[in-house]
UniProtKB/TrEMBL annotation:
InterPro entries (UniProt xref): YjbR-like_sf (IPR038056), YjbR/MT2646/Rv2570-like (IPR058532)
Name the UniProt record assigns to this protein: YjbR protein
Species whose genome carries this gene: Lentzea albidocapillata subsp. violacea
Top-level taxon: Bacteria
Length: 105
């Protein structure tokens, strides 16, 4: 899903599998009891996702006030997940890389 995004690399982050762009993490699998995928996002986007009541999106006290949403991969719509992965990538990618993705290079 993220392989179409420029300069995505598979790496580790907090000793778990993750995706990074230019060394900056934007997604990682959690091994904590609650599991899930951590995706970077804006705080208003996080609030909106949580407000939907969709069981695919959740948080824990550790992530309160932090720009990341937790995603249950077994419950999330694949199309929505693809959009959220791209948004997370955009938060960490340089303006130059965003232009490459948008075809403005």
């Amino acid at each position: 899903m993220a392989s179409r995004l420029p300069e995505v690399e598979e790496a580790t982050w907090h000793r778990t599998p993750s995706l990074k762009v230019a060394g900056k993490g934007f997604a990682r699998l959690r091994t904590e009891a609650e599991g899930g995928l951590v995706l970077m996002c804006e705080l208003d986007e996080k609030a909106a996702l949580l407000a939907t009541g969709d069981a695919a999106f959740y948080t824990t006290p550790h992530y309160d006030g932090y720009g990341a949403i937790l995603v249950d991969l077994a419950k999330v719509d694949p199309g929505q997940l693809a959009e959220l992965v791209e948004q997370a990538w955009r938060l960490k990618a340089s303006a130059k890389l965003r232009k490459v993705l948008d075809g403005d290079s």
